[in-house]
Every structure is written in structure tokens, then in C-alpha cells.
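Input C-alpha cells:
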């Protein structure tokens, strides 16, 4: 318990050894939200390949996803750029490595949640068969009128383009699209980044080139 309190107070110091202990705790209490959040932060601290998968799990268990976002951006330390000499396109694009959000990237985090289709865990007790039958009998059956079909409006597209404006596009958002397999969105994001950060034009242009190659595989 003392260790758990220490992790809550200093989550940026959670180590590989602490992760092993938290893993055991979650096996016994999988609905324990605090442990889900702490192990996520620990995996981010250690650059674990498990992080992206655990982030989805923590988002499913989290009662307040804003707290999860605040935790993963806490004391974010810029990591040096690692030159990858692998010939695999996926390795060069660093697919699978931890998604590093910063405090200004709530939109990127929201996009990741939406594209990952992370649903919150239902904690309500499941009714037994008798309750299901009783509820069905007691429920008044009614025929709903079919909903009117909403037709496409040009204004909808305009609103969508405003959402993904240049001020919201970041390298992390582009990586989110890439990780989820939305290659066209990733290319569009990197194209905007070329204009936003002309000094990194060659880097982002190379990312676009690699994504196009990945699409051909």
C-alpha cells in the first residue's frame, strides 16, 4: 500500500520493477482504475512496446479520461531522436512506439480515442435470466417511427475541415493517424506540418514518401 501511495505521488518514477508488481495487482483486481492508470504511466516511462495497447485498456477503465490525459503528459521529458537503421518501413516510421502526447494536444488525444474506438468498461451488474424475462414482460412494446435520413450537407464538410485546421495538427496527431492505419489522414497531416514547420520540411516529406510505400505493400 505504501508503494502505491508513492506511485500516486510520483508516477513519473514508476520503474520496470514497479510495473511487474502492478501487473500482479491488476490480475487480481482488473477494475482497479488507479492501478490501470499507474501501469500506463510506468510503461510510458520505460518506453515499453506494451504502452499503446495498455493506453487503450486504461482509457476503457478510466472513469475520467481527462485524468488519464493529465497523467500521461505529466513531467514529459523530451527524448533524443533515435536514428533507425532498419530497412523495414514500419520500423523507420516508428510504428508501435509509445505515442507521446503533450499538454497542448487534447485534440490529438481525443482523435486517438475516437479512432481507437475505445469504449468504457460497463461496471453495472449483469441481470440474471429471470430478470431479463421479467423486464421483457413488464416492458411495453412499441413500434418506433423510422428516423429521417440525414442527407449530406456541404456545411458539414466545412465544419470538419475547420476541426482539422493547421493549429491543431501536430506530429503526434499525424502519428495517431498512422498508427491507426488512416494513411490518407496521416499524409494530409504531414503535408500541413511541412507548411507549418518549413525547417522540418525534408523530415515530413520523407514520412509522406514512406507512408505511400507502406500503402503499396
Amino acid at each position: 500500500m505504501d508503494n502505491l501511495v508513492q506511485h500516486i505521488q510520483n508516477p513519473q518514477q514508476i520503474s520496470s520493477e514497479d510495473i511487474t508488481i502492478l501487473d500482479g495487482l491488476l490480475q487480481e483486481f482488473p477494475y482497479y482504475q488507479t492501478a490501470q492508470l499507474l501501469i500506463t504511466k510506468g510503461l510510458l516511462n520505460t518506453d515499453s512496446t506494451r504502452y499503446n495497447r495498455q493506453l487503450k485498456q486504461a482509457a476503457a477503465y478510466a472513469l475520467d479520461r481527462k485524468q488519464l490525459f493529465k497523467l500521461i503528459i505529466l513531467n514529459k521529458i523530451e527524448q533524443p531522436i533515435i536514428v533507425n537503421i532498419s530497412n523495414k518501413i514500419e520500423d523507420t516510421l516508428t510504428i508501435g512506439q509509445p505515442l507521446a502526447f503533450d499538454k497542448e494536444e487534447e485534440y490529438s488525444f481525443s482523435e486517438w480515442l475516437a479512432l481507437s474506438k475505445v469504449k468504457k468498461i460497463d461496471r453495472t451488474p449483469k441481470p440474471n435470466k429471470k430478470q431479463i424475462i421479467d423486464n421483457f414482460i413488464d416492458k411495453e412494446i412499441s413500434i418506433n417511427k423510422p428516423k429521417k435520413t440525414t442527407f449530406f450537407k456541404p456545411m458539414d464538410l466545412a465544419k470538419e475541415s475547420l476541426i482539422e485546421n493547421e493549429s491543431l495538427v501536430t506530429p503526434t496527431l499525424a502519428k495517431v493517424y498512422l498508427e491507426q492505419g488512416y494513411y490518407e489522414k496521416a499524409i494530409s497531416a504531414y503535408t500541413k506540418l511541412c507548411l507549418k514547420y518549413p525547417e522540418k520540411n525534408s523530415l515530413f516529406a520523407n514520412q509522406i514518401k514512406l507512408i505511400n510505400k507502406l500503402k503499396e505493400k
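The radius of gyration is 22 Å. The chain has twelve helices and no strands.
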